[in-house]
Amino acid sequence: FVPAANKPFNSALNAVSKKDTYSVTLLPGDGIGPEITAATKVALEALTTKCGFTIELKEALIGGAAIDEKNDPFPQESLDQCLGSDSVLLACIGGYKWDNNPRELRPESGLLKMRKEMGLFANLRPAKVLPQLIDASTLKREVVEGVDVMVVRELTGDVYFGTPKGIDVIDGQRVGYNNMIYSESEIDRIARVAGDVASKRGGKLCSVDKANVLDVSQLWRDVVTQVITDDFKDVELSHMYVDNAAMQLIRWPKQFDTIVCGNIFGDILSDEASMLVGSLGMLPSASIGESGPGVFEPCHGSAPDIAGEDKANPLAMILSAAMMLKYDLDRPAEAQMLEDAVEAVLDQGIRTPDIKQEGDGCKLVGCKEMGQAVADVVASMALN
Ligand SMILES: NC(=O)C1=CN([C@@H]2O[C@H](COP(=O)(O)OP(=O)(O)OC[C@H]3O[C@@H](n4cnc5c(N)ncnc54)[C@H](O)[C@@H]3O)[C@@H](O)[C@H]2O)C=CC1
Ligand SMILES: CC(C)CC(=O)C(=O)O
Ligand SMILES: [Mg+2]
């Protein structure tokens, strides 16, 4: 597992070399998924037209949509299609309709299966505060201005996958249990990704755990310490208990550069970090493994409370597409164009409801119009 020196992080991916035509699997999923997918397609199409290359987007089923059609939240044919693509772009899954299904027939099981079967053990969740959105955060301007944190979340272990698990009747009452479990090798590989990410960013890595109470966290701390001190000598490593980290992220987030943590702590802390940025609808992510295509997905869920109302913010998915261009498709310049276009749209004062402030003088738009606005900017950009 050798870090690639020329990459902004150790993707360790079989990233394809730059070419004219790419195949990408598109997983629209549930809730706001189809809406943000449509908006992202419009933006991507403008980009590929402008830059003269092709991304062949082929849809596949995941989540509730797959349950409804195939009685399986991640059918084998979807997995095969993903594995055969250059990359995968996912919207989001889940919804009330499937909440009472047996566990194996819930949308979330499809998402977990996809991550496990594709070996996507590292999830990179950048929370970078854009100057245009400083006032969209519920926190004070001086707290969030300039924040740039990368959460490196382990994605295929922890309580989400540990066994034994279940709900049994013991001594006449129901008892529910899951197992928080990590092997040394699982910790080692995520620590190497985090060390590489940190060394290519600000050089500071904070490992978050609960080693004061949990044995699994003690092992986490021991292995992370060994990997970083032995093999990433330029990285300054610190450790923090997760309860304190949750508080420090709000108190003074600028103390963090790169954070590494297990699956559940990373899930929670990254949603928290989204409010530094202003909205969960702004947070992209990259899910990567040691080989094969990555999956690029917003951090948020299917937002059933606003689904079908053209209110969703598509920028997290559009920024996830930018991460895909950069890390999986060898198109860093085009990724930068998409990111620049998002900022230009925000500069124009265009806002979906989640990032609109009362009296800010900005124009309120829906999901569709936001996607089109990004596409319009891309179409008007000069090529270098
Ligand atoms: N990766 C995925 O597909 C994920 C799926 N889920 C699933 O999503 C469903 C809903 O879960 P929640 O806990 O409500 O989390 P959620 O992330 O879907 O929504 C939380 C809040 O953020 C808002 N929000 C989320 N994305 C937004 C966007 N792009 N634009 C504007 N507002 C946005 C929602 O309206 C809601 O108020 C559940 O079934 C859950 O299991 C949850 C998290 C991740
Ligand atoms: C539905 C969960 C399994 C996923 C989640 O919350 C996430 O990946 O952020
Ligand atoms: Mg989550």
Automatic annotation (TrEMBL):
HAMAP family: LeuB_type1. Transmembrane segments: none annotated. It comes from the Eukaryota. Pathway: Amino-acid biosynthesis; L-leucine biosynthesis; L-leucine from 3-methyl-2-oxobutanoate: step 3/4. The keyword Iron does not apply. One of its GO terms (molecular function) is 3-isopropylmalate dehydrogenase activity. This is 3-isopropylmalate dehydrogenase. SMART domains: Iso_dh. Keywords: Amino-acid biosynthesis, Branched-chain amino acid biosynthesis, Cytoplasm, Leucine biosynthesis, Magnesium, Metal-binding, NAD, Oxidoreductase, Signal. The keyword Oxidoreductase applies. It is found in: Cytoplasm. One of its GO terms (cellular component) is cytosol. Belongs to the isocitrate and isopropylmalate dehydrogenases family. LeuB type 1 subfamily. Its EC number is 1.1.1.85. Its cofactor is Mg(2+); Mn(2+). One of its GO terms (biological process) is L-leucine biosynthetic process. InterPro entries: IsoCit/isopropylmalate_DH_CS, IsoPropMal-DH-like_dom, Isopropylmalate_DH. Binds 1 Mg(2+) or Mn(2+) ion per subunit. Homodimer. It catalyses: (2R,3S)-3-isopropylmalate + NAD(+) = 4-methyl-2-oxopentanoate + CO2 + NADH.
